Amino acid sequence: MYAIPFLDIPPLRSAGGTVTLPGSKSISNRVLLLAALSDGETTLHDLLDSDDTRVMLTALQTLGCQVTRLGPQQVKVQGLGGRLPVRQAQLFLGNAGTAMRPLTAALALLASTHGGVFELSGIPRMHERPIGDLVDALRQLGCPIACLGREGYPPLRVGHGAPVPLQLQAPIRVRGDVSSQFLTALLLALPLVAQQDVTIEVVGELISKPYIEITLALLARFGVAVIRDGWQRFTIPAGSRYRSPGGVHVEGDASSASYFIALGAIAPASPGHDGITIQGVGLASMQGDIRFVDAARAMGADITGSANQLHIRRGHWPLKAIDLDCNHIPDAAMTLAVMALYAQGTTTLRNIASWRVKETDRIAAMACELRKLGATVEEAHDAIRITPPTHWHAARIHTYDDHRVAMCFSLAAFNPAGQPVRIEDPKCVAKTFPDYFETLFGVCQAAPADIPVICIDGPTASGKGTLATAVAERLGYHVLDSGVLYRLVGLAAERQGIPTDAASLTQPAVAERLGQLAATLPVRFDAGRVWLDGEDVSDAVRTESAGMAASRVSALPPVRQALLDLQRRFRALPGLVADGRDMGTVIFPDAALKVFLTASAEQRANRRHKQLISKGIPARIEDLLADLKARDARDMSRQDAPLKPAEDALPLDNSAQSIEESVQQVLAWWQARRPDWAH
Ligand SMILES: O=C(O)C1=C[C@@H](OP(=O)(O)O)[C@@H](O)[C@H](O)C1
Ligand SMILES: C=C(OP(=O)(O)O)C(=O)O
């Protein structure tokens, strides 16, 4: 996940490959609750691991439910059989509608039948999302519920300690025109008290209907067969009781699929690929958002699929504008709004009033951000109309803590003007798809020249590695510690018995062998560690002897040549910070920012000394200083790519700077080279 203030997505050119989607949020939170309320133990497979499911899981544990994590996407839930060991709790539910609404109903009924008092709260936006229709329905039943802030909104207190009688004879009336989650909440909760038939009547038009189908299908999996009369009346038969089905597999999230369906429809196929394959969700999905496929086809996407898989190719291009009632796919429809940027003509998305009460006012948010890209947008209270830009602008997309805004606007990076897109607060995708951007970059390609590189060159012990790592972390970029590559050649040579002393290196045969070794170096950088042929060598490469060997082998042309390609392969989405001695001069001469980092030899010897001592390695400053000076002289005088600043490098002397000051300086230089995000 990119936990950084903004993520700059370079202009993207093509896409291809396979993505496996994380589990459906709607299914995950329903089955977690159902498993907790059931008799027996349930193992949930392919469960979504995200903010929304974590708040549900934590709430269930707080309520006394035993949950054992068997793997990142697998949990075992010990069902409570409709009883609560805990009678008093405060539950924080973030911004998860699928946790707040169903838990409100379930706890209101349990507190009424067994006694108890529970407080449910969320983030500030959750306290602006309506729940009044559900509260009204539960109060009809006799459940004590207090809105602790504004009437009709969380935070809520349900129950008041002692049990209260429930009135279950008359049909329970609930409005469904603000959110279908109120009806879902009642359907999930009422089997807990169904000693007699219990009927729910929907008042007015029900929105987001397909989510009710998910609810009914999952109730059936847990042993409760609801009798329905269209969308108007739902009856839970007397004696209904939740029974664990033993195990449940969660489908991939159909709303999350929409971004990759759109990707396949927008992006030309990458060389060697034939579109995008999505695994984990397919045409047989129980999720209504799979109907996004029809909308994407109407816009021109070429989509084939099977029960559990989809395959998308670019079909009609440019895309075709559509005029669509999107009430059945409220979440995925946001993706259509971004696809509309690539359509010929004006697209209208209708019947989406619920967008205004979700993670943010999504109609207003989409209109504002689409306009930043250059689109013409008209807003109605329940619709949005989008005409594509004639001139695309580089835009800084504000994401309103709304995962879907962040995800769908990433697709604007395919704009024909080749403008990058800045996504602010990219970590908001954690609500439902924490690794969204990593997954996207895994199947997208950019022209190498469009992938930004920041080079930080400089002499040994100038703090290049520390600076490069910190700058890369702030920008979400990859790091290339090119010095480590040379050290790795030195280390690998040592291990294979290839001599690296000065005399041996003058022999052409030795230089050749070292070149071959470098060309096939099995190196991997992962989570700040360096791996050589599957072995973590992060510490071994940092020894002074490996450093000296690196300096000697790095002067050999065959080694430099072999490592050239390897180093250039590190230029990957969304960008790279490369540190070394010839990054700006030889490896990435077209880099957008080159920094030449220096510090006095004394200062560098001092830092190296502190570093070694802190690791318990004995060292003398005088020796280190002499070594440094010798190494500087060798690096500067070598024939091939000597250490010297690139002509367009900016000098940075960090002798008197803190690390943070250097980082801020480099970031300021970088910002000055970014597009004008004024729009
Ligand atoms: O029941 C569900 O799982 C959901 C229902 C929909 O909400 P509304 O019914 O409020 O439209 C949807 O937007 C939400 O993301 C998930
Ligand atoms: C509306 C959404 O979430 P919630 O489940 O919180 O309603 C959504 O995921 O788009």
UniProtKB/TrEMBL annotation:
Listed GO MF terms: 3-phosphoshikimate 1-carboxyvinyltransferase activity; ATP binding; CMP kinase activity; dCMP kinase activity
Residues in Cytidylate kinase domain copies: 454-668
CDD domains in the record: CMPK (cd02020), EPSP_synthase (cd01556)
InterPro entries, per the entry: Cytidylate_kin, Cytidylate_kinase_dom, Enolpyruvate_Tfrase_dom, Enolpyruvate_Tfrase_sf, EPSP_synthase, EPSP_synthase_CS, P-loop_NTPase, RNA3'P_cycl/enolpyr_Trfase_a/b
Residues engaged in binding 3-phosphoshikimate: 25-26, 30, 179-181, 208, 331, 358
Pathway: Metabolic intermediate biosynthesis; chorismate biosynthesis; chorismate from D-erythrose 4-phosphate and phosphoenolpyruvate: step 6/7
Family named by the database record: Belongs to the EPSP synthase family.
HAMAP family attached to this UniProt entry: Cytidyl_kinase_type1 (MF_00238), EPSP_synth (MF_00210)
Protein name: Multifunctional fusion protein
